[in-house]
Amino acid sequence: MFEEQGSFFEEDYNSHIERFEKMLSKDESYFFDVDVFEFLAEHYLEDGNVDQALAALEVGISQHPSSAIILLRKAQIHSSTGRIRSGHELLNKAESLAPNHDEIFLTRASLFSQEHKHEDAIKNFLKAIELCQAEDIDDLYLDLAFEYENVEKYDLAVIALKKALALNPKNEGALYEIGYCFDQDDRMEACVEFCLTFLDENPYSFTAWYILGNTYSRMNQFEEAIASYDYCTIIKDTFSSAYFNSANCYGQMEDYTTAISLYFKTFEHESEQAITHNYIAECYEKLGDNEAALKHYDLAIKLDDKLGDAWLGKAIVKDQLGATTESVQLLKIATEIDDKNHEYWYVLGEAYEKLEQYDAAKDCYEIVLALEPTNINAWLDLSNVLTEIESYERAVEVIQEGLETNKNNEELMYRLVAYLLQSGRNESAKSQLQIALDKNFEAHDKLFNYYPEAQNINDVLNIIETFKK
To answer: Please, what is the average pLDDT of the chain?
Structure first.
């Protein structure tokens, strides 16, 4: 037997909770309107009680089997908890009852997105936008843009984001996303044009100024970037990211003193960050103030002892101060933090080579080349180490291997000539010299820079003179 309910609008919402829970505890049946089941589900979800929300909707479906909205709410819960198949089934039933309900298509789009069926998600977002009567649908266009990004259709994502911003210029998520899409599509000029047009109508949008600054920075137009960040901080003087990025630009322009002051400025508006101290240290290092550099590398490590770049920076300064053995220990920590970082291994190899620990240096350079076979310096340094611990013949083999990956590289070609001469293989050296000269005559001084004695070999000089003519 169903208990009749009074007017929904006359009763306190809390009374529905009490009645519903009383019904469950006594295993009785009370009647509720569709609106009440919606409210109950939302109430339990806010409390984090998903099971109770679903229980309310189950009762709702049994009392209102023709209600699309209750089916939809249950489908939305299933969507948020990863129950994809049942979510689709519920939405299909709901659509048969309310074929033009925009939320059905939105929820289905979410399910397809979870399944990585992004094209299907896009179709449903477009349908939802078509059906939606609300004016504030800018976030729907933002969601649509995310799906376009998932299939790398950045041009279509930009179109969707422009529609979002036309509806709501204050949608910061759409602004950040449009900057990202222009960047991914390598359309920097188009991004600048968009930002300038947008700022003509919305001059106080600090977010747009920030995106413009980021774009100019990526284009290496650092003065324009700094001007944009300045406008950004005039509008919002607590925006630490703008100070940070402006500092990066000053660093690129080698104005390290100004960069340092701006990095410190970020600490006025956010907690101190390890990466910021790391950049401050780098600036002091560039200025030749090793003591200040070490201080800030240590502060970076104190804040984040997993920041490999800080260990690297500290190691480089220690080496410059003559403490190469200590530098090696610091570099070992960096490689333990990130054993796939070729820079850490390369600098460690240099340190070992400086200490004349050639076997250890060789191991490091080999790791570098396994990670980054296009690293020319690593091929050269590995070959050089091999001349110390093995032979010029072995160095020749390494350079030849390097040339297989880096064809016609001038450094490797002329170094190969040098090693062939040093190993007594003069005919091979002359043949290789002709190949190198044919590919890049202007770089032939690299042979003499590495092996000055070649300037005393007449055959070498004659071949060069022939190519000069």
So the answer is: 91
pLDDT digits (tens, 9 = 90+) for 49-105: 787 777 777 777 777 887 888 888 888 888 888 888 988 988 989 888 889 999 999
* Residues 330-358, mean pLDDT to the nearest whole number: 98
* CB atoms near residue 261 (< 10 Å): 15
Contacts 24+ apart (CB under 8 A), 78-81: 79/107, 79/110, 79/111, 79/114, 81/50
- Residue 134, classed as helix, strand or coil, is coil
Q: What is the pTM assigned to this prediction?
A: 0.82
Give pLDDT, residue 449. 93
* CA separation for the pair 392, 372 (Å, rounded): 24
Q: How far apart are the first and last CA of the chain?
A: 109
Cβ-proximal residues to 307 (8 Å cutoff; 6+ apart), any chain: 274, 275, 278, 300, 301, 337
DSSP assigned state of 443? G
Burial class (CB in 10 A: 0-12, 13-18, 19+), 151: middle
8 Å CB contact between 185 and 154:
yes
Query: For residue 229, what pLDDT is reported?
Result: 98
Residue 284: which pLDDT band, with cuts at 50, 70 and 90? very high
CB atoms within 10 A of CB 300: 26
Burial of 374: CB neighbours in 10 Å, binned 0-12, 13-18, 19+: exposed
> By the 8 A CB rule, do 346 and 334 touch?
no
Asked if 92 contacts 85 with a C-beta cutoff of 8 angstroms, the reply is: no
Continuous H helices in 132-171: 138-150, 154-167
Give the whole-angstrom CA distance, residue 189 versus residue 197: 12
Q: Report the SS3 class of residue 238.
A: coil
- For 155, how many CA atoms within 13 A lie in the half-sphere containing its CB? 0
Region 296-316 average pLDDT? 98
16, pLDDT greater than 80: no
